[in-house]
Amino acid sequence: MLPQVHIRLSGFLSGSIRRFCLITFAALSLYSCGNNPQKVNPSVGAEIPEATFLVVLGTVQDAGLPQLGCRKACCKKYEGVKDPDKNVVALGLVDPAEQKSFLIEATPDIKRQLEIMKKYISYADFFLPDGILLTHAHIGHYTGLMQLGREAYNSGKVPVYAMPKMTAFLGGNGPWDQLVSLGNISLKPLQHQSEAKLTDQLTVTPLLVPHRDEYSETVGFIISGPNKKALFIPDIDKWQQWEMDIVQLVQQVDYAFLDATFYDENEINNRDMSEIPHPFVVESMDRFGDLPEKEKAKVYFIHFNHTNPLLDATSPAYQKVLDEGYQIAETHQTFPM
Length: 337
What we know:
Elements: H1 2-33, E1 53-58, H2 73-76, E2 90-95, E3 100-104, H3 110-118, E4 132-133, H4 139-142, E5 158-162, H5 164-172, H6 176-181, E6 185-189, E7 196-197, E8 203-208, E9 219-224, E10 229-233, H7 246-252, E11 255-259, H8 281-287, H9 293-296, E12 299-302, H10 316-323, E13 327-328, E14 334-336
């Protein structure tokens, strides 16, 4: 009889243990995937800040990487493969205290960038930001808005902050005006050098910059948090054409994300560079050359054309920029604000 008792007891225990394991697994699954999301470390060595912060969501020029028709070595290694970190330039702003988030630029890579942003937000079931800020009407900076339309997500009145000409362009031209008429977005006009409050912890101040303004004006932003300030100027023709002093501005902020479309004048041999002016990286380094090291270290070059050697961390140009004391923006970098 003892063996039978042993068998029955063993069966009872094994069944109980099995049920306990199943219940425990279900409970863990519920709490890990449901209303109590865990912080996810989206990149090696990265930490999700507890307070207001900025996150880099993309660093590449409007047309992305690789570019259409490109047969150069810089594009060939990306043929058939999309590097998830080589997105068109964009920044994310997150205020955990007020549970608000904002996207600067609506790029063609907006879907992937919002997925990146989601990994940095633990306070809610994030899907769309609480607002989108636009710098100008070139293809890499606003065309992601199409993903909010009837044919796609069909969002409801997402605030879109833009300058007056940009606002008029979106509201008066198809297909963008349909986003307005159907209530997918709600346009929020900005004014030059006028601070706009996003949350109690975050404000942005647009600064007009000289650029090819075919359909809208172009701005950069001063982003102010409770403790830090960031300057974001992804596009400008040349620093010397601007009425403001970029050297002084860099000294007034904690981080400066600056136009680095082209490394130097020899980068493109099939286009007239005067038609697409930008400050070359070598020009910017020369302009900031007399700054102390701590000021140079504030500069994060961003908005790289597909030909720019700064996209290759093994290139001599990449190393030279670092040796000169400057920084190179990378997707997933976070900055306390």
